[in-house]
């Protein structure tokens, strides 16, 4: 067989999200915005001797580092898209970055809770006007960042390859039939970081205002504890969703049932089925079919036509020994 005829049977493993490049640009913009805010606060805090500005500046630095992880993950996945060392492509780098960011977010929640408990035990004097101004400025930056990272969901359309051999691969299906979407966990992680910071700013402004006008100095650290609990719950949800992708947890039970129903026609039976996510909006499925009268793998492959999100399909066909 000539090399030029081999090409029609081969395919790449480009399993990036539909809006990968756009999400990458947005994330880098947020990184720059956060770094500018951080430098401004640290410089101002040093010049004016403000611990509130210094503390918030370094806190912004922590978020900039986490957002930087998300931005570099997008870049790495894009630059190594054709690297054959990654068996199923680089679509999961975003989930790896999201998992790391979620751990950082969890550590931030622990830090806030620890500081809040210390301040409940040993209250410290607060310069309310300055602290509220810093929180308000941080809130503006976080809202701008959240707008840049606003809900982008990945949808993918595939390419069709009709291969007639026992290891059959299907690249994209058409636009009708089952709709199966997966969020970009990397973008979600970046969004959660800025929203966590925004929530902290809102709570801080409310608590500082209450403390300033009522004299309840415990309001600030008490609200800090509430904020840390909210951030911790967001971090846990992000760890759960990104970790599930990294560990190849069943991607979509509904889609799995649809695949099984379409494959089991007549005396054809599915004996093994593995469905997992290989990138935002991309799933791979590996299944074995046993039959008294087995057909070519391409026949079984055609039964899955129209299922969006199935970017890599492998069919193994066996004859029932009895």
Tell me what you see in this structure.
By secondary structure, the chain is mainly α. It has a domain at 3-157 and 182-246: Cation efflux protein transmembrane domain (Alpha-lytic protease prodomain-like), CATH 1.20.1510. 58% of the residues lie in helices and 10% in strands. It has nine helices and three strands; from the N terminus they run H-H-H-H-H-H-H-H-E-E-H-E. The protein has a three-stranded mixed beta sheet with strand order 1-2-3. The longest helix has 30 residues, at 185-214. The protein is elongated. Residues 152-181 have low confidence and may be disordered.
Short structural description:
The chain has helices at 3-6, 20-48, 51-79, 93-121, 128-148, 185-214, 219-246, 253-263, 297-302, and strands spanning 269-279, 282-291, 310-319. With 322 residues, it is mostly helical.
